[in-house]
Amino acid sequence: MTEQVMAAIDGSKFSEGVCDSAAWASQALGAPLTFLHVVDNHPQTVEADLSGNIGLGSREHLLEELSQLDEQRAKVAQEQGRLTLKAAKERAIEVRIAEPGTRQRNGTLVETLEELQEEIRLLVIGKRGETAHQDSGHLGSNLERVVRTLHRPILMVPDAFQAPKTVMLAFDGSKTTRKGVEMLAKSPLFDGIPVHVVIVGAETGDNRSQLDWALKTLRDAGHEAEGAIRAGEVEATLRGYQEQQGIDLLVMGAYGHSRIRHLLVGSTTTEMLRKAKVPVLLLR
């Protein structure tokens, strides 16, 4: 089974950014590109107690009409999805992607991606989806659930694409972030792109040793690499470094118990992703 770059798209303003980012990743990785659109056919109607002051027959008639409306909405959603996939495919072909694929599935996005994850080398997804408030500063609920469920690298992107010129890895010496260093070192996705490795913590011998290992690994693979150890609150420190250095793409681990990876654990959205204005690659 060929692993591919999979781009989850809908009708949101983030879809163009997803398309362009996925096309860039597909070309850099030399991996096939597939666009995915999921139609959530869960009933929109709520089986409230409508008996009240109307007769049972009236209530049944109303529920029947609501059911018909749901069917109509589903058909419209499927057609909109087909048009979205067609437009995405044409956009990818314009930038010379050979034979981009398209898939439309019924169900929920999270369940669909979980079923397909063995085929996914990299998932590209927007910061928020079609149903999220477009001016919201929060993440889409689908993105949160996908991050917690999928065991594949996830590239979260803003609404406009810009090929990254610099990358920052939030590093803590853990198994996940050490794997991240090794992935960065050998991945064609980052060929020729300078890498910044940042540890948030005290200037200790252990932190310095971890940083030296990361920089040596990257430099031995031919990367231009520099590192820093910064004290402070994790999210604010990383975001401050990213803004000061003009970093185009942030790489970090998605789960764990360290201070950095704990950002993505819990029931609330994380400040790191919520405030990100650049793509964020999440590693498992």
UniProtKB/TrEMBL annotation:
Domain UspA: 1-158, 167-284
UniProt key word Nuclease: no
Keyword Hydrolase on entry: no
Keyword terms: ATP-binding, Nucleotide-binding
Domain of life: Bacteria
N-terminal signal peptide: none
Pfam families: Usp
Family: Belongs to the universal stress protein A family.
Protein name: Universal stress protein
Organism this protein belongs to: Halomonas tibetensis
